Amino acid sequence: KNDLKQVLKSKVAAEQERIKKFRKEHGKFKVGEITIDMMYGGMRGIKGLVYETSLLDTNEGIRFRGLSIPECNEVLPKAPEGCEPLPEGIFWLLLTGDCPTEENVRWLSKEWSKRAKLPAHVLQMLENLPKDVHPMAQFVAGIAACSSESKFAKGYTEGMTKAQYWEYAYEDVMDLLANLPLIAAVIYNRFYKNEETCMKVDTSKDWSYNFAKLIGFDDPGFVEMLRLYLTLHCDHEGGNVSAHAVHLVGSALSDPYLAFSAGMAGLAGPLHGLANQEVLVWLSKLKQKLGESPSEDQIKGYVEETLKSGQVVPGYGHAVLRKTDPRYISQKEFAEKHFPDYPLYKIVSTLYKVAPPVLQATGKIQNPWPNVDAHSGVLMQYYGLTQMNFYTVFFGVSRAIGVLSALIWSRALGLPIERPKSMTTDALMELVKSS
Ligand code: AMX
Q1: By the 8 A CB rule, do 70 and 331 touch?
Q2: Residue bearing the CA closest to ligand 1, atom 3
Q3: Catalytic residue positions?
Q4: What is the pLDDT of residues 365-417, one digit of tens each?
């Protein structure tokens, strides 16, 4: 009952059947309308994708297989010595739709630690990259290079059947999740410490513990923070840039390594995952200018200046959410519990008070509230992980959990190659004229 692939096998056939019936009965049901503004506006509001693992409510935030973040924090298994949910648990939940038992999660920790083995050529390639290549670009390259190990690609060449796609995808996803902390650690240790990575993984410990250890952090507080962080960033439905890129590239039957590296290239953008780095850069400039303990008015003035100079206030706003991101709240609660008097946390809390009205006053920003990235860097800084251009790599390791669970399901459901219709402006004008 702990073998995840067997658990999944029992779900796949039933789900295929359910969807077949649904499509037969309602396949022609109209889901919505598409306007010209939506087409020029980044496809906001177009319901055009099927993505099973999570769903975003504009006011409530994300739900993972129906569970809100506080519910997940409550019900997901913890480490024997910890209070925070284990990311292994959310992977089990996203993939199967069932909340895992402690035993399930221990099985998964062991399984990932057993599969952790980075191919020698990947290590060599990372070691040969110049040090000024951004950690996210290194991460993308490292993941893509692991494609040499793809069981999915091999299976395809050897003629696996369509019904077997998801099983091969599952094997690659498990190997990839097992190896992501190693790839990240090699990049971190080389980039910041000029050190080789000791690749030993403790098979009696969880994924986050081993990840922390690989990059030289053994403070139990840091490990707990990482467990929460890796759980919170795992998934945010299917239309965001990283999830959508994985889904799109995967639909061409590129193997999971290639599909995931495409998603990570998207996460590396400043309007998406790089925002957590941008927040810290922005906060550091604030501190430089105003000192460690600025007043409310000073912080408000800093936000106004940022807007006046035509820049975005990083960590605020969202394409879909219209309230404070519950992932922000969850990190805030962690900070409140562990380091309520940390000066940087106090600045971030003051921002939460003063920034939304300033953003709202512009009249054009749809969501003046903070998103996940407004808080995560502060947690890292407190525990001494100060290298901010590495932060998006942590985000990426976590994001793998959701987008790769979804990828397995896309293959299980036999979703076809993605190919929406595009139009030229002239063709659109013609369409309007002839209507
Ligand atoms: N600061 C300044 N201006 C902002 C803003 C912010 N935080 N958020 C939105 N705006 C501006 C937009 O740039 C846009 O201006 P324009 O009309 O002159 O081009 C206008 O407000 C309307 O934008 P919107 O409809 O509210 O947002 P969007 O869906 O176009 O973009 C997002 C969403 C997240 C890219 C945007 O809010 C932003 O740039 N935020 C800062 C960066 C950030 O925190 N990104 C992380 C998001 C979460 C994640 O993916 N990790």
Answers
A1: no
A2: 312
A3: 272, 318, 373
A4: 999 999 999 999 999 999 999 999 999 999 999 999 999 999 999 999 999 99
Residue nearest atom 39 in ligand 1 by C-alpha distance: 271
Q: What is the mean pLDDT of residues 104-116?
A: 97
CA–CA gap between residue 210 and residue 306 (Å, rounded): 39
Ligand 1: distance of its center to the CA of 68 in Å? 24
Cα–Cα distance measured from residue 315 to residue 312, given in angstroms and rounded to the nearest whole number? 9
* ipTM attached to this prediction: 0.98
Find the domain containing 348 and state its range: 275-382
In the predicted structure, residue 115 carries a pLDDT above the cut 80: yes
Please list the residues that pair with 67 across neighbouring strands.
64
**In the block, which residue shows the tokens 């063709």?**
427
Nearest ligand 1 atom, CA 395: 51
The atom number, within ligand 1, closest to the CA of 374 reads 44
Pocket residue to mutate for ligand 1, from 242, 271, 307, most atoms within 8 A of Cβ: 271
Tokens describing residue 189: 């240790």
* Ligand 1: lining residues by beta carbon, under 6 Å: 240, 271-273, 275, 307, 312-319, 364-367, 371-373
For atom 9 of ligand 1, the residue with the nearest CA is: 365
The domain total for the chain is 1
Q: Is residue 367 part of a domain?
A: yes
Q: What is the CATH number of the domain that holds 315?
A: 1.10.230.10
